[in-house]
Design goal:
Aspartate Aminotransferase, domain 2, 5-stranded antiparallel beta sheet, 13% strand, 2 domains, single chain
Length: 427
């Protein structure tokens, strides 16, 4: 054992601390396991209802006509997520790409989009036109407004006032926090705000960015009244197996509009070759409930250990979660960089890479990112990143198994180069 600890650069004091903290989390872990069981039932039921067979793994090329497996995948995703239809394609490069396709599909010149969770994720700024780009929604004369959250909840009064006084075509809700310090948005809060919105406007499109949130709660936004949800396959629902892609799921007519923006009007979801990827998407979804539960447990352990070492964390280890992200506020650049590097050192792929803060497309600040993953940029595999700006927050997510996640926490904490007193749990 000691030889492995040494080769992985895990300090014995850190190893002992993590095991001690882990013992205190078993009752919380049982709840996570129960959620994984419920979501596994959902997935298995969907596979059986759609009668998945080995022939559905067959490859299509070219136009992708009559891809039975691809069509079954979309029906399965619709069942699991509670939608009427779904568009699940590897032609989507990322979750941000799928969100972009949806926004351009639903909005027309002089329409107004309203974000009710404040400023969206950085990669959407040029899409919307918050940051100038000649290809943005703004360049097509589409208006953007936002209403900030208040104390991690919706500003219900401002939302209702805006809807009464102006015609809003689409409301966007980003569930996960992005590079902010707010909480992620729970299904309970989404259900409440949708009810308030529908009392005023029954027709406004309610679109939810569901990235990082799938299988973290029992219900989905579609099951509490959202019209459309969007997410990435290199996050939760890909299970660490789907090599790329994303989904758009919800009302049939809205999925159709998105499909005709992804491909072309008149053909929509009937074209788009699977290129032999159906098996990996199905395997990824099949494994996803367990993988997500591993990511949640890893986040809980991270929260418990880092808080007891004196760092501010969100969520706390015993708080309700709505996504797989754990944020750690280091308040100094050095600890942020060292922790993220520790996660990179804990990776199976490129573990010897020394990650550095760099400029990245779509971001205003330098970003330091650890993602030693089998799939480039996969967030459901253990990863950690953050902007080099005060208060120097690391955003950690994922882990394909809990044991690998536990090892990653041990290695990252050891890389902080802090003195640990196990009895007092202080640094």
């Amino acid at each position: 054992m000691n030889s492995y600890l040494e080769s992985l650069n895990i300090k014995e004091s850190v190893y002992d601390l993590v095991l001690k903290e882990e013992k205190e989390l078993q009752d919380i872990y049982k709840n996570v396991d129960n959620l994984a069981f419920i979501n596994s039932m959902k997935v298995l039921n969907a596979f059986q209802m759609e009668n998945v067979s080995e022939s559905d793994f067959a490859e299509t090329t070219g136009y992708g006509y009559n891809d039975v497996g691809r069509d079954k995948i979309e029906k399965i995703f619709a069942r699991v997520l509670g939608g009427e239809d779904a568009l699940v394609r590897t032609q989507f490069i990322s979750g941000s790409h799928a969100l972009t396709v949806a926004l351009f599909a639903y909005l027309r010149p002089q329409d107004t989009m309203l974000s009710i969770t404040g400023l969206p994720y950085d990669t959407l700024h040029e899409v919307i036109g918050i940051k100038d780009n000649p290809s943005s929604l703004k360049s097509f004369d589409i208006n953007y407004k936002q209403i900030d959250l208040i104390n991690n909840d919706f500003d219900y009064d401002k939302i209702k006032e805006e809807l009464r006084n102006n015609k809003i075509k689409l409301i966007e809700i980003q569930r996960s926090r992005g590079y902010s310090l707010r909480d992620s948005i729970s299904i309970e809060k989404i259900a409440k705000v949708i009810k308030e919105i529908r009392n005023i406007d029954e027709n406004v499109i309610i679109m939810v960015d569901n990235c990082y949130c799938e299988f973290v709660e029992e219900k989905t936004p579609l099951e509490v009244g959202a019209d459309i949800i969007v997410g990435s396959l290199i996050k939760n629902l890909g299970g660490g197996i789907a090599p790329n892609g994303a989904y758009i799921c919800g009302k049939k007519e809205l999925v159709k509009l998105a499909s005709e923006r992804l491909t072309l009007p008149g053909e929509g979801s009937e074209v788009g070759p699977s290129l032999g990827i159906n098996k990996k998407i199905l395997q990824g979804l099949y494994h996803a409930p367990y993988v997500v539960s591993s990511a949640i447990k890893t986040a809980i352990l991270t929260s418990k250990v880092l808080e007891d070492l004196g760092y501010n964390v969100s969520p706390k280890y015993n708080e309700k979660r709505s996504d797989i992200v754990e944020s750690i506020i280091f308040n100094n650049e050095n600890d942020l960089i060292n922790y993220v590097r520790g996660i990179q050192f804990a990776s199976a792929i490129d573990s010897k890479a020394l990650t550095e803060p760099v400029d990245m497309p779509g971001y205003d600040d330098k970003i330091i990112m650890a993602s030693g993953s089998f799939i480039q940029g996969s967030s459901i595999e253990i990863s950690c990143d953050g902007p080099i700006r005060s208060p120097y927050v690391a955003y950690q997510q994922g882990s394909l198994t809990y044991d690998y996640g536990k090892l990653a926490v041990m290695i990252a904490v050891s890389n902080l180069n802090i003195s640990i007193n196990i009895d007092n749990k202080t640094n």
